[in-house]
Amino acid sequence: MVLIVIFATNFYTLNKLQVLLITLIIGFVSVNSAQEKRQIQIEYAGKLTIDEENYPGAKVLTRDDKQQVHIIHGGSNMWADRAIHYGEENFVEAYGNVTVKQGDTINMTSKYVEYSGITELAFASGDVVLTDPHSTISSDTLYFDRVKQQAFYKNGGKVVKDSSGTITSKIGRYYMDSKKYQFVNDVVLVNKESTINSNFFDFYSDTGFAYLFGPSTITTQTSKTYCEKGFYDTKLEVGYALKNARIDYDNRIIEGDSLYFDNTKSFASATNNIKVTDTLNKSIIKGHYAEVYRAKDSLFITKRALAITVQEKDSVFMHADKIMVTGKPDNRIINAYYNAKIFKSDITGKSDSIYANQKTGLTKLINIPRLSFGDKFSTARKPILWNFENQMTGDTIHLISNNKTEKIDSLLVFNHAFITSKDTLADNAYNQIYGLRLVGQFNDENALREVDIIKNAESIFYARNDKQELIGIDKAKSGSIKILFAEGDIEEYSRFNQVDGDLIPESKYPKKDKFLKGFDWREEERPTSVEDLFSDDPPLELPVIKGLEDYVPSGAFFDEDMLERIKQAGKGEPHKNKAARNIPKQTESENLLESPNVFSSSKWLKNAVKADISSTKNPMNNDVTDFITGTGTRDGHIYQVVNKTYGTFKFSIWMKGKGKTRIRFQRADTDFAVYHTLPITLTNDWKEYTLTGVKSNDGSKLRCLISDVQKNDSIYLWGAKLVEILTH
């Protein structure tokens, strides 16, 4: 064993001869000029030891009482209590209170560091903390690539970003040039305003912008937002959610294709296919544009706006151009205005506006005069209500219900009250009652049972005997009328303070007197289904929501360039390559796809695509290939589903031909959400295309496909391979 010890090796204080001797001993000069890199330099060491038995080819450097071992390479400085320097490999191991500094911005501390001057890759372990002016990363192990200016951890880590909070994840990557973090798996951001959970999370430390992909939630004290694609400004607390987007505000659930939210104002707006559920009052509001102010307990919705009061036996549907819901949860009020309609199996209505109080059960059908010239509805088309065979109109209609029993109690019609029912046994014959005011009572089946017409009552009845034979037409005027109905027909009636009245045979009844003044039979307007509520609406054109692009995973941290650097550090002797010893080993599973070269096989499921055998040679020039074309009925695709629910996958396939296509990873369920996609423009030459991506554990299987195949496309395929990448 050769043991050489040199003390007080401060190289800037020694004379030229000493510097030359120590330089030769430590071996700063590379033995291979073909692989020459900047050499690791020892700036200071308290003690230098050569221990060939334990550290062959290395110099052991130890601190003294004055200061730590100081190492320099390419503008970076490292300090440690102890270091082992392998001069020939241009490699160093540092132990104890290790600090690495790069310029004035990057500072890393840990218990242990390995660093290669050839790869310029550092591996740190033991309470690793990396800081820059924007944030702090801490992890048990961390990789720092000085060439790409990236840091990476794969076994859990934490990032602290001043006001933006603390982020933890299983896998994290920091792009120092763009100040971007990319987190994968079990991502959690916590700050004083909110908590964000996601599977894929891109975060920019200088702006505080966060981009969420995969199942994600943003939770605050007053709301919880879910989406599978979204953006959040952690500084301003605003953002938007796409793809299965949902916001929970106390007892309100807001869903839509696109949701914008401002948590500082407790405000949210939604676009396209909106559904707002009131869990307390058992109501649902639908439409295609909505605004919700949680602090003001208000909701505005338009574009096919529909309010549904959910009842166990028979729900109530209300539609209008616009619907406003206001009030505290225990006193919610619905205002539907402009061409408002209401539908229930036993009662329907229509008016300019509808007011409904969910607490009191009072519903008002109101005609609000509008100033627009020629608005016939506001001047002539009075509020109208239908109940079984009866049509009721008036200037204002009040309907009173019992929310507990879900039954209609009573009806009030104010000013110009008119009730009409058609006599089904005669042509153009109508029973009619008119008066200043109408009071109605309903039976347990929600059918109109009793009606009182108060003041200035007029009536026309088609009187029939027990055999339903017409006796005559009864026309009279009185102070008031009380009517009893049975199964929609008039059972009996009583007049009070009658002024005049006659029962006249139909043959002698003047045709001009068959209708009371103000008679207006409007059966053609009566909604008979929920769909009828929208019959007067103009065609609906929904805006196209662009939003965020699909998640695109970055290339692997240990990419081909880095692996080549590591290979060069081994100088042809992989078993002696110290730069490779802490690099995760990656292996690939067997091909998960069946019939990888026979696309006409039933193993490949096809939609709007047909597959045939061609005479074209494959890329290896030893066999023929299949080709696919679109049928033209829709965008075609060909795919296989594999029994994998999560992991990192690589799909590769050789293709050539004419047209454009995509290779994709999708959820294999009814949603078919796209995880990753690679657009391809085909050429006449064979080329292997590769798509690599991570699938979160969302419960669905993985669908691997070639998509967007059009009728004029002709695509030759060979060598489809899907593998799972396993890191050890």
From TrEMBL:
Residues 37-198 form the Organic solvent tolerance-like N-terminal domain. GO terms for cellular component: cell outer membrane; outer membrane-bounded periplasmic space. Pfam families: OstA_2. Keywords: Signal. Coiled coil: none annotated. One of its GO terms (molecular function) is glycolipid transfer activity. The keyword Signal applies. The keyword Signal applies. InterPro entries: LPS_export_LptA (IPR052037), OstA-like_N (IPR005653). GO terms for biological process: lipopolysaccharide transport. This is Organic solvent tolerance-like N-terminal domain-containing protein. It comes from Pseudotamlana haliotis.
